[in-house]
Amino acid sequence: MNIRLEFANRLQFIRKHRGMTQDALSIAASIDRSYLSEVENGKSAPTLDAIDRLAKALDIHPAEFFVFSVREPKQRYE
Question: Which of 44, 19, 18 is nearest to 31 (CA)?
Fold first, then answer.
């Protein structure tokens, strides 16, 4: 298992599930769109701060990014 690719796939799935484009998510999370693209393609590993901002923007608990066997996110950000 490559955790960077698993994270990338999970992030992309959740973003699309929420109906957001990379541009919309990057703006909501205050993250550069090219950096977000690199993370979603498994080319960059996100920092903890980036994971936190992405989770808030997607309204999920940060742990949801690491639930690889479950498709739809369950926990909200609190």
Answer: 44
Q: What is the pLDDT of residues 25-35, one digit of tens each?
A: 999 999 999 99
Give the DSSP letter string of 61-76.
-GGGGG-TT--S--PP
pTM (two decimals): 0.87
CA distance 3 to 7: 6
| Cβ-Cβ contacts under 8 Å for 9 (sequence gap 6 or more) | 68
> Residue 69 has what pLDDT?
73
In the block, tokens 């541009």 appear at 23
Distance CA 10, CA 69 (A): 10
